[in-house]
TrEMBL record:
It holds the Pfam family Ank_2. The keyword Repeat applies. It comes from Bacteroides stercoris CC31F. This is Uncharacterized protein. PANTHER family: ANKYRIN REPEAT AND PROTEIN KINASE DOMAIN-CONTAINING PROTEIN, ANKYRIN REPEAT-CONTAINING PROTEIN-RELATED.
Amino acid sequence: MLLSLAMFCCCLNGVKATPLLQDTIQDKTYRLYPLGIACRNGDITTIKQLLAGKDEPMAMSSDCYEFDILYTAIYFNKEDVLKYALTRYKDINDRVYSDEYGLTLLTYACRLSNVKLARILLEHGIHVNGCQSPYDTYKVYPIMEAIANKNIELVQLLLEYCADLEIKDSNGNTPFTLAKEAGSQEIENLLLQWMR
């Protein structure tokens, strides 16, 4: 009887779930850590478990950079994950991603032409013009990304949140000159209305 009980306990021990190793890449295609996989899958329960510690784990990486849950939620277009992360992290205006472009969360959402996620970020108080480091190689702003993508709905949204129409990118373009270069008459007209 005692031998049977010992064997049963050994079997139970063998079926225990192994803990997720947060610092181990689990998905090599997207270079996702467990948090990134949970984010991609929209698995809020697992996300909450992974974020329960005091340290903020990374979600995905590239050869040179690592990215957090906010960036990853935008990358995978996960509205619920982004909303949850925004309730947890209040420093959204301090998060600039350390690649050569220094994209803010809003700039990244605009680069992906994602109006829905841009609106959520703006509703949570993100700076409409971004806030880049003066050491960045390029000057990339949310409105410039929206114009480059010829996304009039996104341009309109940014204007409603008082996007600066006098800012200049690395090439000295203002939003209006970029719209002219892009050949978007509709966006040019919209910008002219807001410049008055």
